[in-house]
Amino acid sequence: MTWNTDNLKCLIVEDDQFKMEGIRFHLRQIYADRIETYECQALASATALLAEQKFDLAIIDMSIHSHEPQAGAGSPFPLSSGGLDVLFEISNSSQETQCIILTQYPDIEIESLPIPVNLAKQEIYDKFGIDVAGCVRYLENDNQWKVEIIEILEKL
Length: 156
Known about the structure:
The chain is an alpha/beta fold. It is built from five helices and nine strands; from the N terminus they run E-H-E-H-E-E-E-H-E-E-E-H-E-H. Helix content is 38%, strand content 24%. The strands form three sheets. A five-stranded parallel beta sheet has the order 2-1-3-6-9, sandwiched between helices. The protein has a two-stranded antiparallel sheet with strand order 4-5. The longest helix has 15 residues, at 17-31. The chain is globular and about 40 Å long.
């Protein structure tokens, strides 16, 4: 679905700016000018974007903040399972958004239990009935995550 599309709308939910830039650059290498990315760093902004736009693809970090940092708005607090909340938003909408989890941690917290990244896709499906396209571990100085993203995208 996403591999041969003419115009792909992608939501990237990531609170690390360096990682966000790496994801954006990688997607541009794959899709060139056929992709339009929408980026946010927090659960509140992701929820707002999902309410007003439809996306073909979402790349979601599991550990995000509650809201974007803004002067006078109070400090955002970290949500170790904030990415799951984004998945729930997508799942409960009428959107047919393909979701890829991309995390720098070896485990994803699901119902307060650490689940290894390679087992998280099945665990999310078993517990919540949400079918994610894939779960990938991001390592800063390792390009394996890029290979895995391409493999997932080729199957969609």
